[in-house]
């Protein structure tokens, strides 16, 4: 983490619609002994309860879900286009079946015990504030259901206070 500079969340200049929705991020949770990561393109940044927060969504069937549920912290890592192949791999393979971090050629590092990656351009270390399973009864439009099969569980939403923002940009 020698190449990273800590900034406040208010100094972030990213466009979350591009950074999350188009360029993607890795959600990582666990500890130095065991962790998992997954690619995500759903999420947001904002303010909740007067705290700078990041929102992310994880399906219960994803291996990362177990780690996110058990951990008090998670990281969101954003990369350059040179890591697109790694993000594709982390979004299609399960950490249950392989060492996808190794296969993706990513270097895990730990910030205050929270796993993240040396190759990231931006790392947000988040303390879990709130978790809520999404309920299809609250889906206000039918087009939301296209993201789910008939019996697939909806995602759990996590709101995490951004306690540390680290950047190389």
Walk me through the structure.
The chain is 15% helix and 40% strand. It is built from 4 helices and 10 strands, in the order βαββββαβααββββ. The protein has one domain (5-167): Pnp Oxidase, Chain A (Roll). The chain has 169 residues and is mainly beta. It is globular and about 45 Å long. The strands form 2 sheets. Strands 1, 2, 3, 4, 5, 6, 9 and 10 form an 8-stranded antiparallel sheet that branches. It has helices at 16-19, 63-70, 84-92, 100-103; strands at 5-7, 25-30, 35-40, 43-48, 51-58, 73-78, 108-111, 114-117, 122-133, 156-167.
Keywords:
169 residues, mainly beta, Pnp Oxidase, Chain A, eight-stranded antiparallel sheet, two-stranded antiparallel ribbon
Overview in brief:
The protein is mainly beta and 169 residues long. The protein has helices at 16-19, 63-70, 84-92, 100-103; strands at 5-7, 25-30, 35-40, 43-48, 51-58, 73-78, 108-111, 114-117, 122-133, 156-167. The mean pLDDT is 90.
How are the SSEs ordered, and which strands pair?
Elements: E1 5-7, H1 16-19, E2 25-30, E3 35-40, E4 43-48, E5 51-58, H2 63-70, E6 73-78, H3 84-92, H4 100-103, E7 108-111, E8 114-117, E9 122-133, E10 156-167
Antiparallel strand pairs: 1-10, 2-3, 2-6, 4-5, 5-10, 6-9, 7-8, 9-10
């Amino acid at each position: 983490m020698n190449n990273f500079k800590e900034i406040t969340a208010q100094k972030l200049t990213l466009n979350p619609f591009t950074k999350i929705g188009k360029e993607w991020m890795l959600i990582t949770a666990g500890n130095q002994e065991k962790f998992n990561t997954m690619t995500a393109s759903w999420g947001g940044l904002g303010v909740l309860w007067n705290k700078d927060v990041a929102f992310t969504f994880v399906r219960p069937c994803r291996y990362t879900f177990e780690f996110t549920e058990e951990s008090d912290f998670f990281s969101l890592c954003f990369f350059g286009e040179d890591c697109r192949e790694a993000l594709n791999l982390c979004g299609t393979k399960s950490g249950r079946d392989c060492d996808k971090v190794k296969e993706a050629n990513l270097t895990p590092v730990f910030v205050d015990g929270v796993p993240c990656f040396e190759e990231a351009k931006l790392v947000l270390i988040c303390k879990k504030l709130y978790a809520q399973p999404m309920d299809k009864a609250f889906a206000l439009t039918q087009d939301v259901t296209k993201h789910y099969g008939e019996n697939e569980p909806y995602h759990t939403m996590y709101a995490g206070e951004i306690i540390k923002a680290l950047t190389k940009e």
